[in-house]
## 1
Amino acid sequence: MSRALPLRVAVATAAVLATMAPILLPAPAAVAETARPAASNGHRHGQDVIVSRATDVYPEGIAWDPTRRAFLVGSALRGTLSVIRMDGTVTELAPSIGMVSTLGLRVDTARNRILVAYSDFWIRQRLDVGDQPPTSGVAVYDLKTGELEQRIDVSGGRERTFANDLTFDPRGNIYVTDSVSDTVQRIDLAGNVTPVATDPRFAADIVGLNGVVWHPHGYLLSLRYDTGEMYRITPGAPAHRRVSEVRLPRPLIGTDGLQLRSDGSLVVVTNSIGAAVGVPGGEDGVSVLTSRDGWRSARVTSQIKPWPTGGPTTVAFTPCGDYVLSGEVGAALAGATSDQITLRRLPSRMSNKENIR
């Protein structure tokens, strides 16, 4: 069941988004700029910091594309898909799919596809979207060409819907978090949408469940942005579906993107972006978590807070290290403008060499 937006949050959000109207109009293709010089790491190729310039992109999600040896990013304001090269140049790969934000992003090389979660949750609170119903879904792009192949709706006719992040399992099933819903959805290879788990602990007014990863032992790990609570979600037949809270030493408030490493550790990116729209935010930072009991509990093994670049949202694993994205989404929500995109590599002490692929 959808939940009404509290009046004070709605008013605050509308006021913020009112300042965003000029940058929510159609924009030209991204403007590219090479990265600024940065100190190199002696045992790896690539720069420690990649700084790019791209007009009105404001990426929130990122993934490494091994076929292009480049990053793919969405756009929180434009609904586009872009490529960021290791030298910092930015080019548009796919045009806008409408008045939506393109958010969580994954590359499925086995099936030659790019998977992107999209929603009009932020945009529709300020702009007139005509007869467009509340919109959330997954866009499927051809990995080689960047052509849009399919849009799969996961809103289920709800009045409030916010598809935010996604992941997929070895069989190609996609799992999508909806940050205002109490349900995690699954999309099979035929495009059928079914609930994975429904739990009142998932629902939120603005941003609840956010980042999500698939664990090879057959379950999902996801965290709430606003409370920092972590959940282990086991899909399956209704009688076997299970949701349990993972015990943490402290809540990871402000959690956005997640990535699971090949050694079993979890990289968690937190930020304070939500404060711009009245959502309790955390501290800009990156933490590495491990578990010894199948993610019934977890501990923090390393952490950097505050993160040197403000507003980090998620991380991408590459052959050159683990890069954390700061796409100035917080600036956009606060009514400011910026064309800067920063990718900052985790230091070697926090990196996992087994991720190189």
Note: Residues 7-355 form a domain with the Methylamine Dehydrogenase; Chain H fold (CATH 2.130.10.10).
## 2
Amino acid sequence: MIEISHVCKSFPDQKQQDLHVLRDISLTVEQGDIYGIIGLSGAGKSTLLRLIGLLDTPTSGTITVNGKNLASLNAREKIDYYRTIGTVFQGYNLLMQRTVADNVAFPLKLSKWEKSKIDSRVKELLELVSLSDKASAYPAQLSGGQKQRVAIARALATHPQLLLCDEPTSALDSLTTQSILDLLSDINRRLGVTIVIITHEIGVVRKICNKVAVLEGGHLVDNGLVSDIIAHQNHEITRKFFGKEEV
């Protein structure tokens, strides 16, 4: 589904010299994967997710999604692409002055769905994330886990093929984290949505990911099946992550 080939990304620093954030990244995400991207702070995880989400472009290399090179898309095709992906953020990014139902409905209104179809879709999504009783509540009245469930429902509103998750559990306690990961796993299984999830928490990878890429200093140091990475642990940073006992 996603083919990342020799991708590099650099930004000019204060001295107008290139700061290399990603260096020669190549990996493949297949349809139906829950693909984890793990690394310490500054490893390049968020930058890579932004490139997949077409919020930025590579300095060199290519990212191909469903056979289309993202760099070649015109303005109309970019809009169509954005509709095929959903994004879940660490900080929820909910509209605080709108109800739960209105937050979930927001992307549907932007896509100019009919009101009756919006109402039906919102009801369906709130049932999916177990928040049917919170439709009229406001974000300030919700727990962190409930806010993230609303964010997940909103991300799924337009039937995306791909769900991008940016540290979706790092602000949550361990029990709430488990429930959110169970929900994402259920969405992947029931809806067939491919999920790319960036994290610095090894428990997230162990819990739901079938594949993982390990980044360090902008380099891809390991990637493949989670079971293979755990078994071999070929690199020091991989051993630091997977050699630890799961908390």
Note: The longest strand covers residues 18-29.
## 3
Amino acid sequence: MSKTIRIVIAILIVKLVLSLFLFSLDLSESTDNLYKAIIRYGMVLLTILAIRKTKVWPYLKNSLLWTVIASVLVILSFYEMQELLATYKLANQTNSNALYLAKCLGTGFFEELLFRVLLFSGLFYGVFKHKPIKKRYFWSMLWASIGFGLAHLTNLINPENELIGITSQIIFAFFFGLVFQGILIRFRSVILIGTLHGLVNYFGSYKSNLGIPVQYEETALTEDLISLGTLTLVCAVISIPLTILLTRKAMQKGAID
């Protein structure tokens, strides 16, 4: 096991311990989001320190263009959410909305730095360093995405989360990870993918985090399995061609050591 992969596992353990501690506390939704945001940004700093001590994929850069685009997306998303909350007569929750957005962005940047930068680089320069360039990219992307997907098993610490729901998260996260790895390889901006990841989380789970009642319907196991199969098929059909398109140019280049 390479040094970088051991570091990734250690960071995940730290994150799990902190999550278990936070889960053990009886906190309001707002306070919980505040503490989660603090933990996420702390994990971002820890991951950045780890990245500085390891060899990472060399083409990362954060141009002014992508920084401006990411900033505009964050601002537009915040006001779009305010409009959305107004439909639920919750437009006065500006502070909760801002705090939830901050938490989501922290999660996005932490997970992108950990999986798409640190873990991918550890695989690229460690486990698969002797393979031809195309296979190095392919296997590094594949296993980094698998790791990202399986990391969602930590959601089992919350007994309210059902196994079928977490399985859906793992499937979605795996294909989501492939596309975002492709975006990073194509556009080379951590700021861009961190922001996009955070905004996907922001709009994907806002109801339960901003006090909007959510109704769940019980379904039979057969229906659940059909839904999982459909999710897998749809994600594969969309993500695999897109990932190939995003990474084609990089894979055509020679070795980059």
Note: The chain has a mean pLDDT of 89.
